[in-house]
Amino acid sequence: MKKTIIVFSGDLDKVMASFIIANGAAAMGDEVTMFFTFWGLNALRKPERIPTKKSFMEKMFGWMMPKGVNKLGISKMNFGGLGAVMMKKIMQQKQVESLQSLMETARMLGVKFIACTMSMDVMGFKPEELIDGLEFAGVASYLGEADQANVNLFI
Amino acid sequence: MAEYQVNARGLQCPGPIVQLFGTYKKCNSGDTIVIEVTEQGFKKDVYAWAKKTNCEILSMEEQDGVIKAVIKKN
Fold first, then answer.
1. A-side interface with B, Cβ within 8 Å?
2. Which first-to-last residue range defines the signal peptide (chain B) (predicted)?
3. Which numeric CATH code is attached to B3-73?
4. Domain ranges, ordered by start, for chain A
5. What ipTM does the predicted assembly reach?
6. For position B33, what pLDDT does the model report?
7. pLDDT tens digits, residue range A90-103?
8. Which residues in B lie closer than 8 A to residue A96 (C-beta atoms)?
9. Which of A107, A135, B21, B64 is deepest in the core (most CB within 10 A)?
10. pTM exceeds cut of 0.90
């Protein structure tokens, strides 16, 4: 049975929870679709700067938001990134997979990633600034998948 | 009837079931998987996993924090 997850948050802990659930579901033999929208799109950004034509506001968004999984902060006690560093350190000691690695596992397991094109437009993200292998679509595509799924989460 | 070994010691959730699934996909019906895990949630998780994937838990034992389960693919 299919599962879908809307990744709305761009917080390290919440994106991580999304991938843990996605990977768990895929490992139980389920088909999984993750729909990345608004802040969740930050997890899909390439870490490097990609030259693109953008308006001033779009450029501002680009500068102000984290570039990819390794730059995300935690939702509580982030303290300008210190909390995220501490959290990553503890997770490493306890051998919790990093978000980067969870994401690679998800791809290996065939989890489908959809980037919300409306959010991309609002935030000024161009397709070439996001990681490869994504589908670009809107809410109807998500709902089409959700109709066939028995678990639909909004994180 | 083949027997597969999986060492998932030290892996945190969902690592053990991801490893288990990777081996399960290579298995034929009737094959068994012997998996060793240190993540305590696995003891309960593996039953939910087995139910979903039509597998049978033949045995489960724990020694010094290492859980050893034998799983058969039906």
1. 20, 23-24, 26-29, 94-97, 105, 109
2. none
3. 3.30.110.40
4. 2-154
5. 0.91
6. 98
7. 999 999 999 999 99
8. 12
9. B21
10. yes
